[in-house]
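User: Can you model how S-adenosylmethionine sits in this protein?
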Amino acid sequence: MKKRTETSSFGTSGRTNHDARKFYNSRMYKNLNNNKPIQIFENKISEEIENKILLKSSENMKELPNNSVHLMITSPPYNVSKEYDDDLTLNEYLNLLTKVFSETYRVLVNGGRACINVANLGRKPYIPLSDYISKIMIDLGFNMRGEVIWNKASSAGSSTAWGSWKSASNPILRDVHEYILIFSKGDYKREKKENSITRDEFMEYTKSIWNMNTVSAKKIKHPAPFPFELPYRLIQLYSFEKDVILDPFIGSGTTGLAALKTKRKYVGYEIKKEYKILADNYLNAEKMKLYLF
Ligand SMILES: C[S@@+](CC[C@H](N)C(=O)[O-])C[C@H]1O[C@@H](n2cnc3c(N)ncnc32)[C@H](O)[C@@H]1O
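Assistant: Here's the modeled complex, given as structure tokens:
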């Protein structure tokens, strides 16, 4: 029999037959797993809200029963004075996210996943929203699974805000990336069901850097859409067919579109009527194609 490798003290490790028990039993991991009591059973969402967007704030998602959603994908409002943003203080903004993600925790099934796309903001000082959000999620009881760096380099308009040109006086980093933070409620593992991911997709999507082009806000008619590929990849990697996918800040409906195209169901929340109308138009066109009416 092949000898099992162990996590090495030099940081490199063989991957065949790897035994990580020593690592996970170390004091570093003591108290790290959120072992809140979680109900194993799943509830069904009502047909009335299946494949629908609700026009209201997702701070309260009372339409969704506990333990009824399998995957949450979202990109929160950035609170940077875009058309749809309120001018909240950092604390007010983080409180809004805490309410929405606490509701997300309630509605996710055991083993359900939550994926949050976020960019960090500003320079004086830099606001590491991704760090604040990870901390909020962990405090709410989520277990963090990892983070994806979305490399937008090939499509990001290259900013010319250099700070000080060719000088160490005050050079400014020009972000060409965003984050996708990934969490689980309860168990990391879900029971195997009908899958739609291909071998090549699995090989690519399990890497922690994703190269994806941005999408034109003008074309979509929403100020901050993410590209279709972003929810598509997350749905393929983290959910099964017929699962319920939630986006509490659904905007132009991209998450719903990816859910329909992959034989999942969606529920969205959107606070602005004009964006709900826009998203419903995109989604109804897709439902017509799929004969879902
Ligand atoms: C970053 S955008 C999401 C864009 C979306 N991913 C897409 O591809 O179009 C955030 C959206 O959240 C909406 N929003 C802001 N606060 C909200 C709240 N409390 N509840 C529900 N939606 C909200 C905004 O109107 C905006 O459309």
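A couple of observations from the model: The domain at 49-289 is CATH 3.40.50.150 (Rossmann fold). The pocket of S-adenosylmethionine is lined by residues 57-59, 75, 77, 84, 222, 224-226, 249, 251-252, 254, 269-272, 275 (CB under 6 Å).
User: Helpful, thanks.
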